[in-house]
Amino acid sequence: MPPSLHRSDLSSHGALQRCNAVSVLPPARGPEARIRSEAPRPLSAKSRHAARCVLLISRPLRAVWRQCIIPTRSGALSRSRGKEGPVARLFLEALFTSLRDDLQVLKKDLSVDMREVRCYLEDIGNRVSAVEVCEARQDEEVQWAHQEVLHLQEQHIEIQAQAEDLENQSQKNYVHIREVLTHAEESDLREYIGALFQYIVGVTKDINLKPDRVHRVDPPRPEEAPLADMLTCAHDFQMKENILHKARDAHRVRFQDHIPVSYQDLSAITLQRH
């Protein structure tokens, strides 16, 4: 049996030590001896991995090797040249056949696994593509919604301005009067406001300046605070303008021991802005 196939060489520790050490070679002379005397080079990672694989495969076949060797009568193993050659050859053939079959099965299993992994990766790639497409679509929808919000804000500002103009236009004949006495009955408020307008404008009682409508803006106050705000609607726009013009010129008009304040009634939005 060759030294490379000796059972003592098949041990994991001894074989790895021999793989990493300098190979046993016949003595050399000249330059070759100088080269061999240098420090041994360690094996590469692939070579060490291959050696470990061979050792792992050879371990379960030791029993087959022991069965192939013919025992003698004394129980010792026979290692004669005539019996060792065919047995070793049969052992190697069985080993190579087993390795070839195992490699074929391993190759088939690896092919199946690689196909499954490839299908799995393709599925992941398709899902990632679908997610990217959905994300791009959502980004477009968000941008479109943002543009719509800006457009709606502009429309809201325009509509609010139009509503403010319409409200102010509907109140163009309104005069807001603050600090008005409320002792009079509701039916006498028009007479009271008409007399106040005549006093502000400075006309005689023959000219009728009674407003068309009069109502309180705030709820009635208690008797100790009889002043309230009144909202009046003049008969026409020119009458309202004359009353406010005279009230601004007089600044503070005293009427029946109190000083009412008259000003143009505007919408709440206009008052808040100004």
Automatic annotation (TrEMBL):
Gene3D superfamilies: L1 transposable element, RRM domain
Protein name, UniProt field: Uncharacterized protein
Organism of origin: Pleurodeles waltl (Iberian ribbed newt)
